[in-house]
Amino acid sequence: MASSNWNWPAVVEADLPHGYVVTVSGRVSGVHESGEVFKEAPFDDTERLLMDNTLTEVTRATKVRFNIYIGDLGADAAAGADAVFPRTPEAARSVLIAVSPNDNAVEVRSGRDVADRVNDRICELGASAALSSLRQGQLIDGLVSAVRVMGAAIGRPS
After folding, report:
1. How large is the angle between the packed helices 139-154 and 120-134, nearest 10 degrees?
2. Where are the domains of the chain?
3. CA–CA separation, 45 vs 76, rounded Å?
4. Are β-strands 65-70 and 94-100 bridged in parallel, bridged antiparallel, or unpaired?
5. Pick from 98, 140, 148, 99: which is nearest to 122 by CA?
6. Is 107 helix (H, G, I), strand (E, B) or coil?
7. What is the mean pLDDT of the chain?
8. 62 in Cβ contact with 156 (< 8 Å)
9. Angle between helices 45-62 and 139-154 (to 10 degrees)
């Protein structure tokens, strides 16, 4: 009979740095701000957990990685998203939803390895889903909607 001396839980959430949470599955999920560090995190733990769970669920279901970028995309949001996309994890087999909140701009890009499943129509669906909530000041709700709508349209791989 096997035995172990594990102390459960292995990670104590109170000991994690600001911006990190233990998800329902026991995984540690964290965020960090790109560029300037905020004095206060822009999202609370509930919002970050909702976004993390949505990204994980849809990525697992579709086998397409979803990446979110929130920040200034510059005067030309499309060019800004084009510049950000290659630097995202697994860009070739992923989707980027880039949001410039101050400009109410949403840009969606898909990688070359998933372009047949994540076509322009699906990208437009995601942008539309995000914009409706963004206009009401609900950034996380808009991003969650975009990821879920796109995931439903992409479906499971064959």
Report:
1. 160
2. 36-154
3. 31
4. parallel
5. 148
6. strand
7. 84
8. yes
9. 10
Alpha-carbon distance of 68 to 66, in angstroms, equals: 7
Residue 21 has φ and ψ, to the nearest 5°, of -140, 160
CATH level 2 (architecture), domain 36-154: Roll (3.10)
Largest CA distance in the chain: 64
**Tens digits of residue pLDDT in 14-69:** 777 777 777 776 677 777 655 655 566 678 888 989 999 999 999 999 999 999 99
Other C-beta atoms lying within 10 Å of the C-beta of residue 132: 13
pLDDT for the residue 34: 59
Nearest to 96 by CA among 87, 105, 104: 87
**For position 32, what pLDDT does the model report?**
61
Cα separation, 46 vs 37, whole angstroms: 20
